[in-house]
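Note to self: keep these together.
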Amino acid sequence: MIEMRLHAILGKSRLHLASAIIAVKWERVILYGSDEDEFNRFTKGLMGLIRSRIDRTNQLSFDLLDKLEFVRIPSLDRRENDMLSMIGSLRSRLRELEGPIDGSDVLFYSGTKPHLFLFVSERGFRRIISFKGEALEIHSTEDVNKGKETMKIPIPKWDEESLLRIHGLSISDGWIVDSDTGKSPITGDSVTKEPPYSLELDDRSKSKVRIVWKKPETPTEKKRFCLHVIKYNQALAGSVIHEVPDEHLSNWCRNTSLPPTIAEESATDFYEEE
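Structure:
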């Protein structure tokens, strides 16, 4: 089998991207993004994931770190740029990149359709890798090869802890904690009480953790709940679904862009009894 190079936009679907990196022995892995610190955090999380599941990731070579490469592109965050400006900036940046793209280069389907189109049209990618069911498929963008049988690649079986690992988190006594410190990513303190939630991998997406919350009853519990939701959304880069048996709070979880006024209090205040 010829050696292949993987190209991917560093987006929010971290577990899918990790699966694509681990499933094939790539010659190189080129990740595109606007924040090199984010690339470094992803790399650290990827190594943590591999170390925790090495028995199920036997295809991984030990020199993977040397194969990872970061390429800076304009931010794809729509909160920072409108779509037309973003497309224009990305097109200009892609035209600046050097090095030919050939049949050994494979583009991971991440980002939006305009981003995918620009990478194909400006850089000349001929092969795309994407998820279909429980496997990865590599297919051609060229009309002459369309309709031919695609290359199917099995991927590792992950669970909720796998998803946390790729974000630099883990589980301790039921709580989501920082993998390095073992402490809460919200307060920075050790967690001792029973967690107000349970965790499971979302069956539909296979790339998000579902947090099933106990119903917060008191104002203090609701404050803590809102803080956790906001902070976990940030820590997991959106790869999280919140399920709570409260209609008002459930609706708020779907759109926290306008946080409640309680979010203005300090993290410590949320943990103080009224």
